[in-house]
Specification:
Mean pLDDT: 96
Largest sheet: 7 strands, parallel
CATH topology of the largest domain: Rossmann fold
CATH superfamily of the largest domain: NAD(P)-binding Rossmann-like Domain
Number of domains: 3
CATH class of the largest domain: Alpha Beta
Bound molecules: nicotinamide-adenine-dinucleotide, magnesium ion
Shape: globular
Low-confidence stretches: none
């Protein structure tokens, strides 16, 4: 029986995780459920899954969560705040942590799970972009397994032999990440001037949270994933390629020196990656419809348009710059995306703000997590200032 701690339980990945878990009550027990401030939804999940511990990040929502749990007859421990999140990630009541908080807010709990040697099911890509080296070091020292949930990285993991070998030693030439191209694939810059948040969040193939949906529309999501692949698989930037594949059926590929290219295919449904990682090395039913290749009929591939979608180029630039440039990139992107969703920044302004912040804050050597957290805050302040100056 695997015991699970699910961070970001009320989100899109959290819901998909719990859907898979509910199909296998003999295999999985939910020990910890954690979320940001949606106490009503978190309480509902606690009534259904009966964890030992519930954590709500926003302390102002703790009393409401307690009331709802009492009314629902749930007697679990209730905690709130960032420290509680960190402690719950390391708590021995679980052996597996699903890191599905969105954004840099997930860093501390993801790090705590890695240090504690948990099986880490990693969806929170921003923590890797922000602190990849330190996270991978913590995971090695903690001695636990890290299984990527991001569909591209999960696909690559599935196409590599063993748990996480060094690529050069096993004849890997290239990692090829597929990108759907998002809702605006094929458009010119002029056609992107008036884009609204609703249009940006209407992804053609995947149903996801709003932040990652905007990232997919700007192609920053693919940029973050290139950085994620670099850290998770030890791949240099020159050995990571991106190809646009509008159908989102090929989730990524690994090219070997002998010319073989291995791919993982499936319908675009995150439950496949989650079921794979939850049960690994076993395979379990995920509730995902079988892939009907004849119905799909075609698989198309094209080069990404990095002139129009500059965020992908900016991510490669930050990765090549090294040090904490990707921390700065991530912070600027989070602020710019939030401003776009609030109607305070046009769609094309997202890349402009990130570029300005990267220019203002040249890369520094990575020291430790507190230094990166400070750097993240400075980059956020800089991004806010740049957005303010545009108005
Ligand atoms: P979402 O917006 O649907 O859910 C986010 C979750 O994070 C919620 O449960 C929320 O309560 C929690 N959260 C937000 N801020 C928090 C804070 N300060 N403290 C504690 N909890 C907080 O997002 P999502 O689409 O589920 O994405 C989650 C992560 O998974 C992101 O990093 C995303 O990039 C990654 N991811 C998502 C998908 C997908 O299909 N949705 C695919 C690949 C990777
Ligand atoms: Mg992905």
């Amino acid at each position: 029986m695997r015991t699970l701690a699910i961070f970001g339980a009320t989100g899109s990945i959290g819901s998909s995780t719990l859907d898979v878990v509910a199909r296998h009550p003999d295999r999985f027990h939910v020990a910890v459920l954690a979320a940001h401030r949606n106490s009503a939804k978190l309480a509902q999940l606690c009534v259904r899954f009966r964890p030992q511990v519930a954590v709500i990040a926003d302390p102002a929502k703790e009393a409401d969560l307690r009331d709802r749990l009492r009314a629902g007859g749930v007697t679990c421990e209730v905690h709130s705040g960032m420290d509680a999140l960190r402690q719950a990630a390391a708590d021995p009541s679980s052996d597996t942590v699903v890191a599905a908080i969105v954004g840099a807010a997930g860093l501390e709990s993801t790090m705590a799970a890695a240090r504690a040697g948990k099986r880490l099911l990693l969806a929170n890509k921003e923590s890797v972009v922000m602190a990849g080296e330190l996270l991978m070091q913590a995971q090695r020292e903690g001695g636990g397994e890290l299984i990527p949930i991001d569909s591209e990285h999960n696909a690559i993991f599935q196409c590599l032999p063993g748990e996480r070998p060094m690529l050069a030693e096993i004849g890997v030439r290239r990692l090829i990440l597929t990108a759907s191209g998002g809702p605006f694939r094929g458009r010119t810059r002029a056609e992107l001037v008036e884009i609204t948040p609703e249009q940006a969040c209407a992804h053609p193939n995947w149903v996801m949270g709003r932040k990652i949906s905007v990232d997919s529309a700007t192609l920053m999501n693919k940029g973050l994933e290139v950085i994620e692949a670099h850290h998770l698989f030890g791949a240099s930037p020159d050995t990571i390629d991106v190809v646009v594949h509008a159908q989102s059926l090929v989730h990524s590929l690994v090219e070997y020196v002998d010319g073989s290219v291995l791919a993982q295919l499936g319908n675009p449904d995150m439950r496949t990656a989650l079921a794979h990682a939850l049960a690994w090395p076993d395979r379990i039913e995920a509730g995902v419809a079988p892939l009907d290749l004849a119905a799909a009929a075609r698989l198309d591939f094209e080069k990404p348009d990095t002139q129009t979608f500059r965020c992908l180029a900016l991510a490669f630039q930050a990765l090549r710059a090294g040090g904490d440039a990707t921390t700065v990139l991530n912070a600027a992107n989070e602020v710019a995306v939030a401003a776009f969703l609030d109607g305070a920044l046009p769609f094309l302004g997202i890349a402009e703000i990130i570029e300005q912040v990267l220019e203002e804050l040249p890369s520094q050597v990575v020291v430790d997590i507190p230094t990166l957290v400070t750097r993240d805050r400075i980059a956020r302040d800089t991004a806010h200032r740049c957005i303010g100056l545009r108005c």
